[in-house]
Input
Amino acid sequence: MSEKHIVVQGAICECKQGFTPDRIKVSSHKYEYANDKDGSQKLIVTTLELGQPFEAKTFGMCKLQPTGSSYKPCQPMITGWKDYYKDVILKNGGNIILEDSKAICAIAGSPVVSITNHGQISEPNQQNMNNADEDTQAQLNPMVNPNDLGSSEQTNEGITETAK
Output
C-alpha cells in the first residue's frame, strides 16, 4: 500500500462513460475513519460500497446508452471493485479502496469508475508541530516560531478600541 492514499467519504469519482463527476458516500459502515481527527466525517470507503454509492447517484449522461442525438441518464450500478487493498479486512467485512482502485459498473460490465481525488485533506495538529524540524520550519516560514504555535491562549493584548 506504499504511496497510495486510502479513499474516504467525499472522494471524487469519474466514469469513463459519463460526463460529470460525483462524490462517493459510504453506507456500508460507521466504524473506521481516516484523516479525520474528530472521527465524524471521513469514513473509509470499502469494497462493500455497491449499488449506487454516490451523492448525486449519476455521472450525467451515459455514453453506452445512446438515444439518437443524445444519451440516457447515467444510473450507475456498482457490482464490484478492482485493485483494492487485499491485506486488511475492516469490521464490516470489506477491503479498503485505494486511490487507484476502479469500480465495475453493471452497464459497462468492466471497471470504468475511477477515483480522481481520494478525499483526504491535510489537517496539521499540535503533534505535527511538536515533531517539526525547527531548522526546516525556520526556512519555510521565518516569521513563525513552531514552538509558539498552540502553546498559549489568545489574548487581546495590543488591541485597542476606537472611540465611537
Summary: The first strand starts at residue 12 and ends at 15. The first helix runs from residue 126 to 131. The mean pLDDT is 88.
